Amino acid sequence: MRKRFAEARRVLVLTGAGVSAESGVPTFRGGGQSAVWKGMPFDKISSAGMLERNLPEVWEWFNYRRGVLETIEPNPAHRALARWQDRFEDFTLVTQNVDGLHQRAGSRSVVELHGNIWRARCRACRAKYDLRERGESASRTYTCTECGNYLRPDVVLFGEMLPVGAFERAALKARECELCFVIGTSALVYPAAGLPEIASAAGAYTVEVNPEPTPLSDLCDEVINGKAGEILPLFES
Ligand SMILES: [Zn+2]
Predict the structure, then answer these.
(1) How many CB atoms within 10 Å of residue 231?
(2) What is the mean pLDDT of residues 25-49?
(3) 3-class SS at 122?
(4) How many CA atoms lie within 13 A of 120 on its CB side?
(5) Is 102 part of the annotated catalytic residue set?
(6) Cα–Cα distance between 216 and 234 in angstroms, integer?
(7) For the purposes of burial, counting CB atoms within 10 Å of the CB of 48, is it exposed (0-12), middle (13-18) or buried (19 or more)?
(8) Ligand 1 centroid to 143 CA: how many Å?
(9) Left (φ > 0), alpha (ψ -120 to 50) or beta: where does 202 sit?
(10) Model-level pTM greater than 0.85?
């Protein structure tokens, strides 16, 4: 494995909730966990239908989640992946996480399959806003300074499609890579879960890093059960 790592030129990494969980970010998908907020299950408050019915409530939930994230720091797995971007000729980091911790650790050009909780976008004109710059924590609904329409979190909600182009970009890189890591994801959420399948079918060596086996384990050439923050730095030595 170390030899493959040392010699690889084109590497793709897919990360999921497990990587964030090592920083203490609550995970809401997978593992049979269900979160309830104000008596509402997570998949209901974070749904496309809720956006139509009660946008202020959606904002209140996302403002709450950002508040939780403000106290959370990237972990050794995030930092290792930030180093990898300068180590390989072609490195692609694809994440299902919306918390922005990869960027905080220094990763550039992350392919965000499910958006980013620190961004809002206009429901009418597609203008995007950095919520860190807006700096408001009140639960009121944000409006677009370009056109005056309501903003929404720039996050893929339950019942919505992935952002246009993000998965396609990731799939293209998956076909080209020689080494593919699947890290901290239960691999149940399609189409993201299809990326290692694409990489494997195109001949890449696939490595899973996860505390427990997943439905993808059989597909991978190598399975390393453990915490990403402990395992990833080992490849570099
Ligand atoms: Zn607008």
Answers:
(1) 18
(2) 68
(3) strand
(4) 25
(5) no
(6) 22
(7) middle
(8) 8
(9) alpha
(10) yes
Six-digit token string for 184: 């901290």
How many angstroms separate the CA atoms of 95 and 85, rounded?
14
Q: How many CB atoms lie within 10 A of CB 23?
A: 20
Rounded CA-CA distance 207/4 in Å is: 11
Q: What is the DSSP letter of 147?
A: T
Q: State in Å: Cα 208 to ligand 1 middle.
A: 41
Q: What are phi and psi of 174, to 5 degrees?
A: -65, -35
Catalytic residue among 114, 121, 173, 227: 114
Residue 201's φ and ψ, nearest 5 degrees, are -65, -30
């390989």: which residue's tokens?
Answer: 88
pLDDT tens, residue by residue, 80-132: 999 999 999 999 999 999 999 999 999 999 999 999 999 999 999 989 999 98
- From the list 27, 28, 30, the residue with the least C-alpha distance to 189 is 30
Instruction: For residue 177, give both structure tokens.
Output: 């890579």
Give CA separation, 24 vs 41, 99, 105, 127, 158, in Å: 20, 11, 15, 31, 23
